[in-house]
């Protein structure tokens, strides 16, 4: 049986974890405790063997706690953590410490929270990215469309580094035109070491519009990147529990299947598990 993996979920406890990004508008849906047992029923219902926990905080303690969850719950297959990209020396120390655990798979800077669109051009950030590449860790990028222009340079500087664009760069966010998004994504798709997470499309469209429909929120974006990058570089993920802002866990699966177009059985297996297993080396 083909493997099914969900490589983008979050766990947190309000008041204990760093949730600096949680603005008042989304608190009704998200300001609750979410732990591995809470997602387990969704995994079982959809025959998904496990998840990758992706950072949503920016502290040393958060990294340590996420790895504790890996030890406690076997279906948490790995962690994408966090380091301060503007402090290369500290980042190296943290990567040495947490990297001793093979379940620490990589790190993610939250570029969408940085007011400077050219944040990644700082020497300190470039040094940290080089340190990550030297350790053969994954670089995940949480970006808006305006940040896409810098990704090809990162990918070319580090052609062996595994890079992932989270949430297809959130094309529903009012951040330029769809043409801008398409140009940015096409340039990145030309870099073979970059993959793309098909995730968060439902909740992002719902956040900026009155509800959502697959033909608006999903179809134009997934079909574009499928044509540019190929199905072998697309990775479905739920973005649970953030998906609860506008839907439920199953919406993330069903909307992807409906929006992406016809898939062979082999292509569906790649999208929902095999590509993730290869990228994360699970």
What can you see in these coordinates?
- The protein has 282 residues and is α/β, with parallel strands linked by helices.
- The chain has a single domain (5-280), classed as TIM Barrel.
- It is 43% helix and 12% strand.
- The protein has twelve helices and eight strands.
- The chain has helices at residues 27-30, 36-45, 60-72, 88-98, 123-134, 151-157, 178-189, 201-208, 214-217, 219-229, 249-260, 265-280; strands spanning 5-9, 50-54, 76-81, 104-107, 138-141, 163-165, 194-198, 234-236.
- Helix 4 runs parallel beside helix 5 (123-134) and helix 7 (178-189) packs parallel to helix 10 (219-229).
- The longest helix is centred in the C-terminal third of the chain and has 16 residues, at 265-280.
- 45% of the residues are buried.
- The model has no long low-confidence stretch (mean pLDDT 96).
Per the CATH scheme, the topology name is: TIM Barrel
Cα distance spanning the termini: 16 Å
Unreliable sequence segments: none
Class per helix and strand makeup: alpha/beta
Estimated share of beta-strand residues:
5-15%
User: How many beta-strand runs?
Assistant: 8
Percentage of helical residues? 40-55%
Domain unit count: 1
Please identify the top-level CATH class.
Answer: Alpha Beta
Note the main sheet.
8 strands, parallel
The CATH superfamily turns out to be Metal-dependent hydrolases
Identify the strand order in the major beta sheet.
Answer: 1-2-3-4-5-6-7-8
User: What overall form do the CA principal axes indicate?
Assistant: globular
Query: Strand-and-helix sequence, N→C?
Result: EHHEHEHEHEHEHEHHHEHH
CATH architecture identity: Alpha-Beta Barrel
Q: Mean pLDDT, as a whole number?
A: 96
Helical stretch count? 12
Using the CA coordinates, give the radius of gyration. 17 Å
């Amino acid at each position: 049986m083909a493997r099914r993996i969900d490589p983008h979920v979050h766990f947190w406890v309000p008041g204990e974890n760093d949730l600096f990004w949680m603005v008042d508008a989304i608190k009704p849906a998200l300001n609750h405790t979410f732990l591995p047992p809470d997602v387990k029923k969704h995994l079982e219902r959809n025959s998904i063997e496990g998840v990758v926990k992706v950072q949503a905080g920016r502290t040393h303690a958060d990294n340590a706690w996420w790895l504790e969850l890996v030890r406690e719950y076997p279906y948490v297959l790995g962690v994408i953590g966090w380091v301060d990209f503007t402090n290369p020396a500290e980042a190296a120390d943290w990567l040495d410490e947490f990297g001793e655990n093979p379940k620490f798979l990589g790190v993610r800077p939250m570029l969408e929270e940085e007011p400077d669109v050219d944040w990644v051009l700082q020497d300190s950030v470039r040094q940290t990215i080089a340190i990550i590449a030297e350790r053969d860790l994954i670089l995940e990028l949480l970006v808006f469309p305006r940040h896409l222009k810098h990704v090809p340079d990162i990918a070319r500087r580090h052609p062996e580094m595994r890079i992932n664009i989270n949430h297809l760069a959130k094309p529903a966010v009012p951040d330029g035109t769809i043409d801008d998004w398409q140009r940015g994504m096409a340039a990145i798709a030309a870099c073979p070491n970059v993959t793309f997470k098909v995730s968060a499309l439902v909740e992002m469209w719902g956040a900026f519009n009155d509800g959502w429909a697959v033909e608006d929120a999903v179809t134009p974006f997934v079909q574009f990147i499928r044509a540019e990058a190929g199905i072998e570089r697309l990775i479905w993920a739920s973005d649970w529990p953030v998906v609860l802002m506008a839907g439920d866990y199953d919406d993330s699966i069903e909307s992807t299947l409906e929006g992406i177009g016809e898939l062979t059985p082999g292509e569906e297996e790649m999208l929902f598990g095999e590509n993730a297993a290869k990228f994360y080396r699970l």
